[in-house]
Amino acid sequence: MESEERTPDPKPRRTAETYLTELPREPSAVPGCSTCLSLSVSRGNARSVGDYSGVSDSNVRLRQHQRDEHTETAASTTSEEIGTRAPGGPVRTQSNGKA
Length: 99
Prior knowledge:
two-stranded antiparallel sheet, 33% helix, 10% strand
């Protein structure tokens, strides 16, 4: 059986450049908040058994909870105001017309 000679490709193959970026920091629990503590413990438990998808899920839930409950825009509205929140934006308020 005769062996075939291979000719090199005329153009070298280019590969996409890879850029490494730093991962975002994990959120930490707000002192005194039982929900933050619970989510942080869940994250630790998931990490301890190698469930990195669970770690990521806990981080997402903790960030959502902190955004909804621990930011200035999450302040409760009074009966004199009707508050709406645009996704990712501040609370917009409208007066209901009462003085």
